Amino acid sequence: MQTQSVEIVEVGPRDGYQGIGPFIPTETKIKFLEQLFRAGLRRIEIGSFVSSTAVPQLRDTREVLQWCAKLPDLQAQVLVPSERRGREAVDAGARRLVFVLSVSEAHNRNNVRRHPLESVGDYERLVAGIPAEIGMRLDIATAFDCPFAGRVPEAETTSLLDRLIPIRPDAEICLCDTTGRADPDHVGRLLSQAMQRFPNVTSWALHAHDTYGLGLANVYAGFRQGVRVFDASVGGLGGCPFAPGATGNVATEDLVWMFHRMGIATGIDIGPLVPLAREAANLPGALPGGRVRDAISASNERCRAQTPEQQVRA
Amino acid sequence: MQTQSVEIVEVGPRDGYQGIGPFIPTETKIKFLEQLFRAGLRRIEIGSFVSSTAVPQLRDTREVLQWCAKLPDLQAQVLVPSERRGREAVDAGARRLVFVLSVSEAHNRNNVRRHPLESVGDYERLVAGIPAEIGMRLDIATAFDCPFAGRVPEAETTSLLDRLIPIRPDAEICLCDTTGRADPDHVGRLLSQAMQRFPNVTSWALHAHDTYGLGLANVYAGFRQGVRVFDASVGGLGGCPFAPGATGNVATEDLVWMFHRMGIATGIDIGPLVPLAREAANLPGALPGGRVRDAISASNERCRAQTPEQQVRA
């Protein structure tokens, strides 16, 4: 019997870092990437090509990207919100792009100051202008819910996909729960509709947030529906710009824990991941999330504190 | 189309309080029960009849129970671990008992100093000795995983149920994830096997812990399998004795949030529940959990902080 497996995409170095105020030195970022790689992570969103005024934390993505060439087995992806930024990224050596746009007009305008259909045009021009061997993923933000407009009907998301998917049929499609307000039935329903409508998509991915505690339930619902690629952020780094003080991305170590308990391989070693998650959570200005980090640390402390005799008595 | 519904059983006043050191005054407990009732909770585990040396926090369960008679619509249930304690509870006026025992021998011995089959005998004598109109629930602890013995095979849990269910076929059966280490596939699998084996059980319940972040995913898996009764603790009160510092029970407000997002009725008003959850989380000595409390409070703060003009600009 073949073991089932999933791919966990580490997005902490992009989605996790971008909201952190104090600049994380480039060498710290690089050292952390190396440690994540050693723990078994093979696809990492290492940064973004965006305005360094808007996101000063990621102004060194170019240098981080250059360093990544040293690890040929690392699939380093970078986020881009426009044709111009996409071309910049490719010129800087990026081999995998993540083009982000929102289903919701209000959110897309807030993010990139244009209508979603203008972003579709931008994507089309980007795809036409870069080599076909550059890996492509589409991050469909507000695929479920918008911080400004509320719940997004499934048909709005699939209509946008109608326009996007033919542009590059081999692109990975990642549905993003930007606000963390999707529920597992909603995740299952939209994925079911989308998978039926676009049977030739080679890879579906899910980007879940844990803001309202539903992150892992949504990942599970996505898994049951057939998704095998999941975004996560070590230590649950990320926060939620729409609910300041609340948590954001699902924690990588929580996903690894869940899938391993279910007998699903991730290729990731949770042993070294937990101290890394602690380190990430302790970054100045970080807003961490996740449960497994504390649960495993606490269990370990307890085991260390018990003498063999005490263990027999327990 | 009829709206689907679930019943959320508030266990904070028992499972949440029992680990809190500083004694919560009886009048505080009663006031809190009243507020929970006003928020729409109709079944509450209000305490336990156990050794007051082992669990001094709940030494006033008898008085709390007497007060509950003032709210005829409140279904107050009390936990008992033995025949003796069960009789005591009934003599004190309890109308609904929760008899707890563990599948795992190590855990049952740790909890009640006897083999699970001795507990079965105890249960049998209790059932024989009390009126049939006393409501009965069985809490099957370590139904999935034991802090001492690890993963519990499904067959061990169903074998114990083979002995228990015929004793009182109308008892509600609650499968408890004592350690929080069940995963959603495990929950679905055990429930599927148990429901098929015991088709005449009138009510299945699930007691999920969020220690490793899987609480809501497990509740969702239980719901998909047909469970309609779920335990939860307001503010996620509870902690985990086997991973000190980690969280325990799933938070009532998180469950209410999830089910409402899914269009499932709970009869509970999340508006007054969130400040109650904050109050519970702030009890001296409390170990809270859950996400919705912070997420909703943060969203509200943000809305209040924004002037209408700012909202238009956002």
Instruction: Give the name of the CATH architecture of chain A.
Output: Alpha-Beta Barrel
Give the oligomeric state of the chains in this entry, treating copies of one chain as homo and distinct chains as hetero.
homodimer
Annotated CATH topology of chain A = TIM Barrel
The CATH H-level superfamily of chain A is: Aldolase class I
How large, in whole angstroms, is the Cα Rg of chain A? Answer: 19 Å
The major pleated sheet of chain A works out as: 8 strands, parallel
Any overview of this molecule?
- Two copies of one chain form a homodimer.
- Chain A is an alpha/beta fold and 314 residues long.
- The first copy, chain A, has one domain (7-313): Aldolase class I (TIM Barrel), CATH 3.20.20.70.
- In chain A, 43% of the residues lie in helices and 15% in strands.
- Chain A has 13 helices and ten strands.
- Chain A has helices at residues 12-16, 26-38, 61-68, 83-91, 105-112, 116-129, 154-164, 184-197, 215-225, 252-261, 270-281, 292-305, 308-313, and strands at 7-10, 43-48, 75-80, 96-102, 135-141, 145-146, 150-151, 172-176, 204-207, 229-232.
- In chain A, the strands form two sheets. In chain A, strands 1-10-9-8-5-4-3-2 form an eight-stranded parallel beta sheet.
- In chain A, helix 8 links the parallel strand 8 (172-176) and strand 9 (204-207).
- In chain A, helix 7 runs parallel beside helix 8, helix 8 runs parallel beside helix 9 (215-225) and helix 11 packs across helix 12.
- Chain A starts with 6 loop residues before the first strand and ends with a helix.
- Chains A and B meet through helix 8, helix 9, helix 10 and helix 12 of A and helix 8, helix 9, helix 10 and helix 12 of B.
